[in-house]
Write a structure and sequence with these properties.
It is a single chain. With about 500 residues, the protein is an alpha/beta fold. The chain has two domains: about 110-255 and about 390-470, Response regulator (Rossmann fold), CATH 3.40.50.2300; about 265-385 and about 475-495, Response regulator (Rossmann fold), CATH 3.40.50.2300. Helix content is about 35%, strand content about 20%. The protein has helices at about 5-20, 115-125, 130-135, 150-175, 190-200, 215-230, 240-245, 260-270, 285-300, 320-330, 340-350, 365-375, 395-405, 415-435, 440-450, and strands at about 40, 50-55, 55-60, 70, 95-100, 100-105, 140-145, 180-185, 205-210, 230-235, 250-255, 275-280, 305-310, 330-335, 355-360, 380-385, 455, 460, 470-480, 490-495. The strands form five sheets. A seven-stranded mixed beta sheet has the order 1-4-8-7-9-10-11, sandwiched between helices. Helix 2 runs parallel beside helix 14 and helix 4 (about 150-175) packs parallel to helix 14 (about 415-435). The chain is elongated, with a radius of gyration of 22 Å. It starts with a helix and ends in a 5-residue tail after the last strand. Mean pLDDT is about 85; it is low at about 1-105.
Length: about 500
């Protein structure tokens, strides 16, 4: 199809900008996150960097651009990013329990991508008239994650991923006059804070999309407010099935589900770790208890003896529950929860002489776990829907830009947040073109539902009517005891599966 001359010029300019990195080094002063965003600041270009991935030198694509944002970057520990080759493994659909009924996941679909999210946005830019651009004006995208507290490592990484997404997309749309602005909210991993923030967010008419949350319980608390306002939410991390199964038309995610992640972990425990018995702990949250329940259902179906199923909100002294576990003497401990709780639990277990293998879900996927547990991480495994950024060949440039801008390795879920930001923007622009002006929030949701299959930096994405990626990929890793080498954790296997049919 022929393109307008202006579009060709735009593509040529963008290509040149993306081939050459932005200017000098960016200096960022960390600021304490707040629930209500402060005034706008300027996102400076990422510094020049390159890396070799699979023998190819790659340069950052986060080109120089000025983008309105209210975020202040948070410094993350500096480590070295190295792209790794993902081992070839068997890819198959899985059978998973839903409630008390075992159902088979649908076959993995064969889809043809319409290209990358960025290329799709460039195509949309060619259709943005001055009238549409004027009506859109400044578009605000919210990141809503824990920026303080025990889970801030992953939450800040998600917000940083949105930051980089807005910077890159801002380059692609700058010629139209439309501006993107980031509003970072701190939900503190607390449902009541997430709800309070959501009520503020929906009152701003310029907010057309939310990228969040980290914690499923917080997302489930905020979703009714988003839904009442028809505000699109795309999660880079929420895995509880109820995110998309509760009937919220505005809820999407770019990661898999716990009714697959839990059973995948159970099969790994039985078939690979050869466990015959397991003691299951969880943190009493929607996420932790949910994935533990799914693990238990499949474990029992496979014949594993469940010696205990207990929830705990304890953060520091696990002596009581460890006494119970030590007496039960299981082959495996499964913990449904996050790294901040798992680290002390593991360390104290090893100090008591409990040497049994340890398994958990993607809540364990943080280098902070290695800082908290150290050598106690021996014989520890985790399933995840995210995986280290080095796992994704198409994310090599993102990893470089993240390192340059935030002086640290991209954390799990940050690359997924980058992809979610691309889908937010594509939906907003598509809706604006169809509305011939500023779209309603409901029109943005409808545009998201009608997007073609597109390539992100973490996967090729097609979404089912409920808002789940179809298919999604699940990974199993052996944990590394060195936090500086967390991105080098050994990949045991990966499973690609469609979401279960309802």
């Amino acid at each position: 199809m022929k393109r307008a001359l202006s579009l060709l010029m735009l593509v040529g300019i963008l290509t040149a900008m993306l081939a050459a990195c932005g200017g000098g080094t960016t200096t960022t002063t960390p600021a304490k996150p707040t629930n209500t965003p402060a005034g706008p600041a300027t996102v400076a270009p990422a510094s020049t960097a390159s890396t070799a991935a699979a023998g190819t030198t790659v340069a950052t694509t986060i080109a120089a651009t000025t983008v309105s944002t209210t975020t202040a970057a948070t410094t993350v520990p500096t480590t070295t990013v190295a792209a790794t080759t993902v081992p070839t493994t068997t890819v198959a659909a899985t059978t998973v329990p839903t409630g008390t009924t075992t159902v088979a996941a649908t076959a993995v679909p064969t889809t043809t991508s319409a290209g990358s999210v960025t290329d799709y946005i460039i195509t949309l830019v060619g259709q943005i008239t001055p009238e549409i651009a004027k009506a859109l004006g400044t578009v605000k995208i919210v990141s809503h994650t824990p920026l303080s507290g025990a889970d801030a490592d992953l939450g800040t990484g998600i917000s940083n991923g949105v930051n980089l997404g807005i910077a890159q997309i801002g380059t692609a749309i700058v010629s139209t006059g439309v501006k993107l602005e980031l509003l970072p909210f701190d939900d503190k991993s607390q449902p009541e804070v997430g709800t309070s923030n959501a009520k503020k967010i929906i009152t701003d008419p310029e907010v057309l999309c939310v990228v969040g949350h980290l914690n499923s319980g917080v997302a489930l608390a905020a979703l009714p407010d988003y839904s009442n306002a028809n505000l699109l939410m795309i999660s880079p991390a929420n895995t509880n099935p109820r995110i998309t199964d509760s009937g919220y038309a505005n809820a999407f995610r770019v990661v898999g589900r716990d009714d697959l992640q839990g059973p995948i972990g159970a099969r790994f425990a039985s078939e690979t770790l050869k466990a015959k018995s397991v003691f299951i702990l969880h943190d009493k949250t929607d996420y932790g208890q949910g994935v533990a329940e799914f693990f238990r259902q499949e474990a029992e179906r496979l014949g594993l003896k469940v010696l205990g199923f207990e929830g705990t909100e304890e953060k520091s002294d696990f002596s009581s529950i460890l006494t119970t576990i030590q007496a039960a003497n299981p082959d495996l401990i499964y913990f449904g929860g996050l790294f901040g709780q798992a680290g002390p639990l593991l360390r104290q277990a090893r100090e008591r002489g409990i040497t049994t293998k340890f398994l958990g879900p993607d809540g364990l996927d943080s280098s902070v776990l290695a800082k908290l547990a150290g050598n106690a991480l021996s014989d520890t495994y985790y399933t995840t829907v995210a995986a280290p950024v080095s796992t994704f060949p198409n994310a090599a440039q993102f990893a470089l830009a993240y390192q340059a801008k935030f002086n640290g390795v991209a954390t799990p879920f940050s690359a997924q947040a980058f992809d979610a930001t691309g889908f937010c923007t594509a939906s907003i622009l598509k809706a604006a073109i169809e509305a011939k002006g500023k779209p309603t929030r409901a029109q943005v949701v409808a545009a998201m539902k009608s997007l073609p299959t597109l390539d992100g930096i973490t996967a090729t994405y097609t979404f089912n009517p409920q808002g789940d990626p179809n298919p999604a990929t699940y990974y199993i890793f052996a944990a590394n005891t060195d936090p500086a080498k967390w991105n080098e954790n050994k990949l045991i296997t990966r499973i690609v599966s469609a979401p279960p049919t309802k």
